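Quick one:
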Amino acid sequence: MLWRVKDRCRISTVVLVLALVATAFLPDLLAGKQDRAGRPDGSPSPATAQERVSARAALSPEMTSASFVDTSSADFSAGTLDAGTYVSETVDGEVILVPAFGTEFSDSSLPSGMSFSQWFPPNGTATVAGGKLTVDGVRVGTDALYGPGRTLEFSANFTGASLNSSGLGQTFAAAPWAVFRTGLFVFNLMAGTNDGASQDSNVPGSLFNSFHRYRIDWNAGSVAYYVDGALAATHTNSPTADMRPLFSDLFAGGKNQVVDWVRLTPYAPAGLFVSRVLDAGSTAHWLDLLATAQMPDGTSIVFETRSGDTATPDATWSDWQALGGGVIASPDSRFIQYRATLTTSDTSITPEVESVTINYQTGCSEELCNGMDDDCDGQVDEGGASLCDDGNACTADACVEGQCVSRPTPDVQCSDGDAC
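Output:
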């Protein structure tokens, strides 16, 4: 009986203590101010670290990585060339410095400044199609003549036909000339120079029936012949008379000679290319610009970008800004342009822009307090308390671990004159 009384006393004591605790804290539990997350007095949630990471991931903006790529003649031709730049088609499309004469045979007829003559009229044609010139029973050359101190480059397919010639000359009916050619009986390709006295060399390698890159360096005291970048022959009887780029197939019908492109130096010392306006479709964070380019010694290419939110660049666009190790400094926007400044200190060579890739991300938005980089500027929750301002003077707002926290400020005077 005594033990039962003691047990009842103990139970009563426990109940009394619990009642006192509830009485002390119940007003705060009932009247305590809740923040926007529904937590009393703005207290952070006791969630685990993994739960907080999951919550932030749920608030993450949907970022999409994408790229603009300029790599073809159509891509580059959509941009703007100044008087010093030129879109070539050595492969699929490049930007180079403008040569003294150049053609890619991109149209359906001979370019301005070129014409042809039949060797044995009325037979013979010069056909331009598919980006190539087919020479059949004619000679095709520039109307203008040029002096020594130049380099002629061209891509051609010698098919092994008799008495084909490509290079520099006046008419090929007589000297002077400096050419790659075939003989009457064809065994191999030859390099031939004639300034009144003839000098010939066999060109090593199996070169017929495929395209190769040919180069003739016509200097005052010598002529050097290259195939695919390798020196094939050097002659000392350099012509002094003016000559023109000239391509010839003597006999109509049968095998023809085909020419892909032609360029004659000097190149311009400098030029500027400006890309077309590139549209991300929405606000983008510009990452980097990666270029594939050829820059021989003495040449350079400098890239810059600018950005804006109008389809046509205007005063609201940013200024042109240089890259920093390939990183784009232009501000986030919907539209962007790049430009390339090409220079050479040796006008017998040119730098080449072969491709340009601009990488970017879309899905950027205003920064929120969520532990994410919403505005794609590389910083998380920058802005701090301003991201969580609820407009209530009676609370102190803060961004804590990706969550807005608001706490009462009892010492602040509210708009109605009462203390908070």
